[in-house]
Specification:
Elements lengths: L19 H32 L2 H14 L2 E6 L10 E4 L6 H8 L4 E2 L6 H7 L1 E2 L7 H14 L4 E3 L11 E2 L13 E9 L14 H10 L3 E7 L11 H16 L2 E2 L4 H12 L6 H5 L9 H10 L18 H14 L5 H11 L2 H9 L11 H4 L3 H17 L22 H26 L4
Parallel strand pairs: 1-8, 2-5, 2-7, 3-4, 6-9
Antiparallel strand pairs: 7-8
Helix pairs in contact: 1-2, 1-6, 11-12, 11-13, 12-13, 15-16
Length: 445
């Protein structure tokens, strides 16, 4: 088992570099027409696979798949033991199952919720994979005992490029108490330099490039059947089969699993965007204005939704997140800390998080902070008007202490217009006080 980087197990780009790009440039119009024609031919192949019985289907489909550009070659067929009920292969493309089925008809456990007729046509069978490992093993054992068709498994659990190493094998196929028939798969695509699969690609995208390419050659090598000895545990037997297949393919065994591939894809394909705004502007210039607060306060009366964004957990930045959460909380005390921390883990910037909250990009239930400081709405209203009248009499150069600032009215006016003006003035004064508190706290005055 060598020291292999997980990035070496997958291709990030579809096309090869160098001279193959020149060939692809001239071939592209031909390949596009060929792919369209093969889509319609593929539909006919699927219909035929549904009609013909299995003993006739393999020969007919193998010939028609040649028209689709899928050529299957077999080596070591003498090692194929029909009494072995479990086939184990490496996983390179979404058509590996089809290539094996054209030579050795089989059944594969399904992990999708497909109609029964479609699963039958594609050679899949529901064995309870979604209900847990124990159910899958139990159903697989029943199939091995009752059916003459072998069970095909891809213990890697995800596709790899087949150039550097194999993903770590899952142990469930080796827990069936049955002998194992290893089959290694290699795919070559001459003329056009196009990778078989890329990180994050969909199955239909890979199939399109199969149809686009002039030919894709599946080379299947059957290895001698293997059985676990009495002293072998399931893990030891799994590693033994994986090591044999890796040696046959001239690859290395790795400890990376299909779950590691998912995490690597998230880190590579879904990186959070950089924040050039925070690097260009000082903190003081990004303080929200009173109009932004008004938009934010009006949005609390509506249910807002936000897009789910991926963020990789960073335990070493917990203290920094807590500090940034406190800074945002001081400016927007009505926002729950959980919502602030969740957005900060993605943005890593106080300014950007405040902007996201004010632009309704963060979903949360506002905290009612008025109950902590206001004994009654009437008294608050009167105090706010008094504070406004006092602040208007102060010189322009003086800045009152935020703790000494009050917002109340001297009396309750009979005019609705006067009351509304008083409300707007108190509202603006509250916003100005919040910004002043933030400046004083961080020495920005």
């Amino acid at each position: 088992m060598g020291n292999t980087d997980i990035a070496e197990l997958f291709d990030n780009t579809r096309l090869h570099g160098g001279a193959s790009l020149i060939v692809l440039f001239f071939y592209f119009p031909i390949g596009l027409v060929l792919a369209i024609l093969r889509v319609f031919i593929g539909i006919q192949v699927f219909i035929i696979s549904c009609i013909l019985p299995r003993f006739l289907r393999c020969a007919v489909l193998r010939a028609m798949c040649g028209v689709l550009g899928l050529v299957v070659k077999t080596e070591g067929a003498v090692y194929r033991n029909k009494d072995v009920p479990v086939l184990v292969t490496n996983h390179i493309s979404p058509l590996d199952h089809l290539a094996i089925d054209l030579v050795y008809p089989n059944v594969m456990p399904s992990v999708w919720d497909l109609p029964w007729a479609l699963m039958w046509a594609l050679g899949y069978r529901d064995m309870g994979a979604k209900r847990g490992r124990e159910v899958l093993i139990e159903k697989a054992k029943e199939h091995c005992e009752d059916s003459s068709l072998p069970l095909l498994t891809h213990p890697e659990g995800a596709t790899a490029n087949g150039k550097k190493g194999l993903l770590k094998f899952s142990t469930w196929p080796f827990s069936l108490d049955q002998p194992i028939q290893p089959i290694v798969i290699q795919i070559k695509r001459p003329i056009v330099g196009v990778n078989i699969s890329t990180l994050g690609s969909r199955w239909w995208q890979d199939v399109f490039w199969f149809f686009f390419s002039p030919v894709s050659v599946f080379n299947l090598r059957v290895l001698p059947a293997m059985s676990a000895s009495d002293s072998d545990s399931v893990d030891e037997f799994t590693k033994k089969v994986q090591g044999l297949m890796a040696k046959e393919l001239n690859l290395m065994t790795t400890n990376f699993t299909s779950a590691d591939k998912v995490e690597y894809a998230k880190k590579t394909l879904f990186k959070p965007p950089s924040n050039p705004v925070s690097s260009r502007r000082p903190v003081s210039s990004s303080l929200p204005t009173s109009s932004s607060y008004q938009q934010s306060s009006s949005s609390y009366q509506q249910s807002s939704t936000s897009s789910t964004r991926y963020s990789l957990p960073t335990p070493r930045t917990t203290d920094r997140l807590s500090m940034m959460t406190k800074q945002v909380k001081e400016v927007l005390p009505h926002v729950p800390e959980d919502a602030i921390r969740k957005d900060l883990s993605t943005t890593q910037c106080v300014d950007t998080t405040i902007t996201n909250i004010l632009e309704n990009k963060v979903s949360f239930i506002p905290i009612d902070t008025s109950l902590k400081s206001a004994p009654s709405p009437r008294s608050n209203e009167m105090e706010g008007a008094t504070a406004m009248s006092r602040s208007s009499e102060q010189p322009q150069g003086s800045v009152p202490s935020p703790s000494a600032t009050k917002f109340a009215a001297d009396s309750f006016s009979r005019s609705a217009n006067v009351r509304q003006m008083s409300f707007q003035e108190r509202k603006n004064a509250l916003y100005e006080t919040a910004r002043r508190k933030y400046r004083e706290k961080h020495g920005l005055l």
